[in-house]
Amino acid sequence: MSSAHSAVPTAAGSVPSPSSTVSSSASSASSGGAAPTIAELLEFVRSTARNEELIASLPLDPEGRTWIRLDGPGGSEAWLIGWPPGTGTGWHDHADSIGAFTTAAGALKEHSLAVRLPTDGWKTLELTDGVDRSRELATGQGRAFGQNHVHEVLNESEDVHAVSVHAYYPPLPRIRRFSRTGAVLRLEQTESPEDWQ
């Protein structure tokens, strides 16, 4: 593992900037340059979350999220992220990327939508009853998801940092960010990788 890394705090909801890369031995989950599967991404984040030395190397900030970019399997984009108490991502999707994440320390909560949103051409949608899902992800628990997954991730603790490992393939081409009032979901902005650097 490379010892060179940096972590930069960001406001809740911001996407980590690829300013630093750390190699992880778990990145060998996919060989031969083949695109990783959802199962391989999930195995990568679970394995990486058990790397106590790596998890301990992440500087934690009391106010903003911090991160280290990792080498994911098969060319995937991967991140180690620290979550101060009370922070979250806000509602967003991952475009056509598949992904997985696991809580490495503390606990996270995920709210997601069991519905596929239109890819383009809308600003406001009214969600139907029964599409909301919530899950608690304690240390060691994670999940994988397919394309166009819409969710928000939160550290609801009042006093404990959480740390998680995330991986996406292909590397995120864009993220759409949403606001939500009751059943109404509103597209607020679309970000591309240039916005994160």
Automatic annotation (TrEMBL):
InterPro entries: CDO_1 (IPR010300), RmlC-like_jellyroll (IPR014710), RmlC_Cupin_sf (IPR011051). CDD domains: cupin_CDO. It comes from the Bacteria. Keywords: Dioxygenase, Iron, Metal-binding, Oxidoreductase. It holds the Pfam family CDO_I. One of its GO terms (molecular function) is dioxygenase activity. Residues 1-33 are annotated as: Disordered. Belongs to the cysteine dioxygenase family. PANTHER family: CYSTEINE DIOXYGENASE (PTHR12918), CYSTEINE DIOXYGENASE TYPE 1 (PTHR12918:SF1). This is Cysteine dioxygenase. It comes from Streptomyces filamentosus.
